[in-house]
Amino acid sequence: MAMTQPAPAPSAVHEGILRRQSLRESSARTYARSLPIVPVRARGLTIEGADGRRYLDCLSGAGTLALGHNHPVVLEAIKKVIDSGAPLHVLDLATPVKDAFITELYATLPEEFARDARIQFCGPAGTDAVEAAIKLVRTATGRSGLLAFTGAYHGMTAGALDASGGATEVRVTRLPFPRSYRCPFGVGGERGAELGARWTESLLDDPKSGVAAPAAMMLEPVQGEGGVIPAPDSWMRRMREITAARSIPLIADEVQTGVGRTGAFWAVEHSGIVPDVMVLSKAIGGSLPLAVIVYRSGLDAWQPGAHAGTFRGNQLAMAAGAATLAFVRENRLAERARTLGARMLAGLRALARAHPCVGDVRGRGLMIGVELVAPDAATGDTAPPAPELAAAVRQECLNRGLIIELGGRHSAVVRLLPPLTLTDEQAVAVLDRFADAMVAAERSARRGGVGVQPH
């Protein structure tokens, strides 16, 4: 009788997969470098790795998983489409699934916007929707330039990168994004935001500024990758006034802020503005790839075929997205995110008082950032950012079964993006593990002299 070989130990499976990944995948891989885990099962906030360890996931697919992993309503929606025999690939043809998704999406939009809106299904990623938005406004206005903001992040394709904060030598005029912490004008708050607005007006109205009338202004209501920086509501209203008065379309990039993340279904609702274009992706697909732009009908100057793409008709994503949108709306999860997010921010600010290395705690809803600085340097927003300490905190969080990510201009901002289904008990567990990780990282820094990056 042949003898069966024993199954490999979980740790061996885990290490083998990671080893093969490092040999086969591109050097451009990102999350896999800082999070050497191999997820095999997941539900809600929790991920189980191939090594048997369990993690609390406060990355949520970079904000994609509004309902956490494998929520029952999402799984049921996907299963229903599969069992129905409906085609899964339909290009841009109309289907009952697509019609239901659009209907649910429009029910969540600001009413004034939805009444006059058109929708374009783009490629599967948010950056594809950004490209479509740029193409749309350039076609509609006949102009080519863009207004964008320092610290912005809009995606990884060429046009999206042009509009992001790290770009150079592009057709984009860079404007100051308002920041209370590290304000570029040195004053912060409403005063700093007003100075930024005045600078924008001056640039547009000065015939010698060198800035031609642009095709659009594109902004994030909360900069995510830029370090979790919420724009003041008053500043958002000023940008709407400035653009409307000059017939400049306003594009709101809600890829990460949408579907309840910030405590309103769409982040523009905090300020009450109505943009001309909204860029939507991530959570609208219920964990599957889906990206759209929704825009004012007056901008619909495209000819048939002016913007196309093979994978615009993902039926499973539309079904999962419609189920997610409905669940968030019916269960008032945006309000839940606002309440629980405020509670978590208060807890983190209390923690900050015991840790000089915390320069700032900020966020909106369940989009939270903690900026780490050199504890022995100057205080306030002149303290140098501490990216190495932030990386150490991320590692100590992982050691304790908590998945987080970093962002900000110097990768010194710890970002928390838990699902909107987070319970009170889970929120406490997240903060407890984060607090323990902070202590461990600081202790290690004192022993090993973790450096900081010059500001």
Assess the beta-strand content as a share of residues: 15-25%
Q: Report the oligomer.
A: single chain
Query: How many structural domains?
Result: 2
**CATH C-level class of the largest domain:** Alpha Beta
> What structural category arises from helix and sheet content?
alpha/beta
Within CATH, the superfamily of the largest domain carries the name Type I PLP-dependent aspartate aminotransferase-like (Major domain)
Low-confidence stretches: 451-455
What does this protein structure show overall?
This is Diaminobutyrate--2-oxoglutarate transaminase. The model is unreliable at 451-455 (pLDDT under 50). 39% of the residues lie in helices and 15% in strands. It is of the alpha/beta class and 455 residues long. It folds into two domains: 10-69 and 333-448, Aspartate Aminotransferase, domain 1, CATH 3.90.1150; 74-330, Type I PLP-dependent aspartate aminotransferase-like (Major domain) (Aspartate Aminotransferase, domain 2, 3-Layer(aba) Sandwich). Strands 4-12-11-10-7-5-6 form a seven-stranded mixed sheet. The protein has a four-stranded mixed sheet with strand order 1-2-3-15. 49% of the residues are buried. It has helices at residues 10-24, 31-34, 60-63, 72-84, 96-108, 111-114, 126-141, 158-163, 189-205, 233-245, 315-330, 333-352, 387-399, 424-448; strands at residues 39-43, 46-49, 54-57, 117-121, 146-149, 172-175, 216-219, 222-223, 229-230, 250-253, 277-280, 292-296, 358-364, 367-372, 402-403, 405-407, 413-416. The protein has 14 helices and 17 strands.
